[in-house]
Amino acid sequence: MTQLEIKKLTKKYGKKTVLDNIDLSLENGVYGILGANGAGKSTLLKLITDNIKRTNGEILLNGKEILEMGAEYRKNIGYAPQVQGLFEDFTAGQFIRYIGALKGMKRKDIKEQSGELLELVGLDSFSHLRLGSFSGGMKQRVMLAAAMLGDPKILILDEPTSGLDPEERIRLRNRIAEISDNKIVLLATHVMSDIECIAQRVIFLKKGRLIRFSTPRELTDEIRENVGEFFGNAGEISELKQRFGKGQIIRQDDGFIFRIAEEEIPDNFSPAANINLEDVYLFYAEGRK
To answer: Residue 283: which residues within 8 A CB-CB, separation 6 or more?
Structure first.
């Protein structure tokens, strides 16, 4: 069992605090990270990967301070960034072997693991094809395989399903769930359905502070009375949108639904069914101060 402990983690740039006394205890499983732009998500990931210097606090892997572990700690990190461009002339197999060499792995281990990992992500029969011919989903799976080289204990995935079609998203999401039994997987994404489907707990950041660390079910249950819906015509919905400034407009065959997540729901709104993480996001990230 891998354990990552984060204690009083703080990051400041001058007088500005971008991460404020974060306490987390993580074990094997998938953790979704939520928060608006500027909430501190990227800063948290950079500190966990030891890419920037912290202002205060501790990060412990199985009881050891990561700053003292140095290169040994970095061997336990796998990172799959959002695909922006790969070496288009490389084959999938060549790219995996290249990443293995950068990680300082032995050739024997690279050869053995590259085949296993491409099979795990369903690309073993495409290993000889150039990345330039791959779809976005296939490229994301190549990045996932590359991140898993060396069997890292901590896997960080940045928007792994962004831009994928529904079939590719489900396929990749299933792969992530399958490998999470013996790893800590940190999933940074704005795709709420990904978190709802595979995350055991959600790390919710706002203005550099940890405001919630709960299961998706707990988060939706605790705001059940704070989500309401109003059914009306286009004019009524337009007035409500102007009044509240935010909310979801859902088109129906005979009108519109305006859905809000607020501290107080007006009397003319009905309780909403099927509370989801989008409601949680609206309530905490855009609602409460």
So the answer is: 223, 226, 227, 261, 262
Percent of all residues in the chain with a pLDDT value above 70, rounded to a whole number: 98
Picking from 55, 62, 149, the residue whose alpha carbon sits closest to that of residue 99 is 149
In whole angstroms, what is the distance from residue 124 CA to residue 87 CA? 18
Output the six-digit token pair for 182.
């013996």
* CA–CA distance, 215 with 41 (Å, rounded to integer): 18
Average pLDDT over residues 86-112: 90
- In sequence order, the 6+-apart residues with CB closer than 8 A to the CB of 262 are 226, 228, 244, 283, 287
What is the enclosing helix (H) or strand (E) of 185? strand 184-188
pTM over 0.90: no
> Letter for the amino acid at 201?
R
Tokens at 142, concatenated: 């190549």
Q: What is the DSSP letter of 82?
A: P
Q: Are 87 and 131 in contact (CB under 8 A)?
A: yes
pLDDT digits (tens, 9 = 90+) for 237-273: 999 999 988 889 999 988 999 999 999 999 999 999 8
How many other C-beta atoms can be found within 10 angstroms of the C-beta atom of residue 138? 22
